[in-house]
Amino acid sequence: MLKVFSRDVLSYYDPKMFGRTACQLVKELSSAEKGQLTDFNSDMFDQVVKECSTHYLELQSLMRGKSRKKEWTFKQLEMLITLGWYNRAEIIRNLRWKIGPVLPQEIHEKLSYSEEEYFKNHSTALESYMSELELDLTVDMVPPKDPYIQVRVLDDIGEVLLSDQSANLARHSMHFLKRIDAEQFISQGLMEELTG
């Protein structure tokens, strides 16, 4: 949605007018593959905020002169940036469901401080809700055919307490575990399900 909307608006938008940096930021946000994050460009974001503040003051003085075209362009840019942040927030929320409460370093590096806080707060709220229900909602996104699966441990995890037993999950060992116990390790890339 961001790509289509930004392409339409940016094709109309004259970069000689104000908002050139915002235009570049929106292009950068919309260039990512669907469901992927680009590195957070804090310098450009700070420039856009400064530019918006300056132009807002300019717009206020122009409003007395009834300049509707600048007002419309300013609102468009504001809407594009908001849409870009909403898109990033949606990806960050989905990461919690797909990967779990701990983000890999390569994804963590792409987040701004406020996005890290957003992820942490979202994770905390989700954990709190699941503990109230006494149910892990992040596993079995697709209903399983069998509650038990055979897995191979890819990285040494160590001794863990599972829902019905304790197990030493050493590297390259194979286990027959409840899907609910294995799912979190599979999503973190620490083990794989053996099929067939």
Number of strands: 5
Distance between the termini: 39 Å
Compressed to H and E, one letter per element, the order equals HHHHHHEEEEHE
CA-atom Rg in angstroms = 23 Å
Strand arrangement across the biggest beta sheet? 4-1-5
Largest sheet: 3 strands, antiparallel
Task: Give the amount of beta strand, in percent.
Answer: 5-15%
**What's the mean pLDDT score?**
79
Taking pLDDT < 50 over at least 5 consecutive residues as the criterion, the unreliable ranges are 1-16
Characterization of this structure:
The chain is mainly α. The protein is built from seven helices and five strands. It has helices spanning 2-12, 20-30, 42-63, 68-98, 105-108, 113-133, 179-187; strands at residues 148-153, 158-161, 166-169, 174-178, 191-194. The chain has a three-stranded antiparallel sheet, covered by helices on one side. It has a two-stranded antiparallel ribbon with strand order 2-3. A hairpin with a 4-residue loop joins strand 2 (158-161) and strand 3 (166-169). The chain starts with a helix and ends with a strand.
